[in-house]
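Dear H.,

Thanks for agreeing to be a second pair of eyes. The structure we're designing against is below in token form, covering all 251 positions.
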């Protein structure tokens, strides 16, 4: 059995059982314990599982901290992502942009592009584009206001999104899994993201390498719905292969 095939089967077994020891896996696959340890190290590096003493376990669902905390996390990665996103957007484009610390960094980089039409549920992102040197049009979606991250959510936001059509939906998520796809840890934010995807010609996910291999509670979309993923570093062989198979471009 080839290494990649064995690793995929190991991942399936651990996800089904929750946790397995090195010895049990070595016996199941009739290989040495050292071979299994190398397999587990590779899978853990890709974020597929979590290593524990003597084995590995299924990772817990990811829960995000406060917006203030997230602003301080992966700051350099967000700047790299923002720089890589800019060439994908043309003057005059219409954009959906959802709330997030990564999309806020992207908004600051995109604000220099003239003539954009931006539809967002983020007060902070609306302010960035409103103060741009060549402001286009900014539509701030109204709904239930959440003060922690200055965003609006809920049925009113979803209803308004349906009145717009965009060239691109630029979204950030809490987690990306090779099989499940993109996920969020907040139900309302996942609903907003899904609505934006439904009314955009293309979907661009902006996510740091650290988000790959995680799982969160609420599914946003499958990888086959994604056109482009912009990240700061290679997400690992498993996720790169999954994105290629889904037809998504990785930048």
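And this is the sequence the design step returned. I haven't edited it by hand at all.
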């Amino acid at each position: 059995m080839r290494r990649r095939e064995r690793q995929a089967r190991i991942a399936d077994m651990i996800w089904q059982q929750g946790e397995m020891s090195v010895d049990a896996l070595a016996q199941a696959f009739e290989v040495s314990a050292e071979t299994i340890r190398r397999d587990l190290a590779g899978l853990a590096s890709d974020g597929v599982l979590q290593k524990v003493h003597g084995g590995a376990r299924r990772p817990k669902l990811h829960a995000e901290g406060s917006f203030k905390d997230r602003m301080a996390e992966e700051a350099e990665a967000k700047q790299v992502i923002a720089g890589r996103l800019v060439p994908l957007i043309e003057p005059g484009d219409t954009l959906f942009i959802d709330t997030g610390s990564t999309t806020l960094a992207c908004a600051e980089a995109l604000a220099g592009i003239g003539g954009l039409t931006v539809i967002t549920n983020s007060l902070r992102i609306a302010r960035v584009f409103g103060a741009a040197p060549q402001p286009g049009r900014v539509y701030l979606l109204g709904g239930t206001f959440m003060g922690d991250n200055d965003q609006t959510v809920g049925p009113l936001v979803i209803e308004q999104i349906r009145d717009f059509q965009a060239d691109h939906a630029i979204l950030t998520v809490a987690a990306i899994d090779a099989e499940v796809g993109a996920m969020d840890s907040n139900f309302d934010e996942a609903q907003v993201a899904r609505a934006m995807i439904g009314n955009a010609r293309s979907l661009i996910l902006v996510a740091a390498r650290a988000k790959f291999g995680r799982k969160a509670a609420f599914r946003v979309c499958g990888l086959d719905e994604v056109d482009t993923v912009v990240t700061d570093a290679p997400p690992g062989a498993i996720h790169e292969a999954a994105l290629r198979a889904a037809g998504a471009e990785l930048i």
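Two observations from my side: The domain at 3-57 is CATH 1.10.10.10 (Arc Repressor Mutant, subunit A). The chain has two domains: 3-57, 67-250.

Warmly,
E.
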